[in-house]
Amino acid sequence: MSDSKALYSSNAKRYIEDTVPSNLVDQGRYERSKAREARWNDNWKRQPVNLNEVVKQFAPGDIGHGHGVKYVFTSDRYEIRVDQVAGYPRIFDKRLKRYVKLDGKAGTNQETHFKILTRKEMDAQ
Asked: Could you give the number of structural domains in the chain?
């Protein structure tokens, strides 16, 4: 079983430390992501998720890849789009063309944003 949290975290660290400082486009993405986090983080924290479990459920076996400010895990039906700066994932259903809740059903904007648990929080579960 791959450790999706570790893959995401190491890529996010590289993105923030290496890519952002040297790229104006990514600097803008970084700033917008931090602004979203400042505005919405308290709401996201109401739905904490273990990234390994989310990937196991919606994109089993995928190791993901960086795509700008996002890190994306993909299956035939779903894309888990994880913001590398703000630490929130969203699950996109490619058939419904909508973001979904953890039960796979379409949800509101607020219902489809989650906050990734830290490694320490994951280990405590």
From this structure: 1
What is the Cα–Cα distance from 68 to 83, expressed in whole angstroms?
9
Do 66 and 11 meet the contact criterion of CB atoms below 8 Å apart? yes
Cα distance from N-terminal residue to C-terminal residue, the chain: 18
Residue 99 belongs to what domain range?
4-124
Q: pTM higher than 0.85, yes or no? A: yes
C-beta of residue 87 within 8 angstroms of C-beta of residue 115: yes
Per-residue pLDDT of the chain (125 residues; tens, 9 = 90+): 569 999 999 999 999 999 999 999 999 999 999 999 999 999 999 999 999 999 999 999 999 999 999 999 999 999 999 999 999 999 999 999 999 999 999 999 999 999 999 999 988 88
**Which spans in the chain are helix H?**
4-14, 24-44, 51-58, 119-124
What does the angle CA 16 – CA 21 – CA 24 come to, to the nearest 5 degrees? Answer: 110
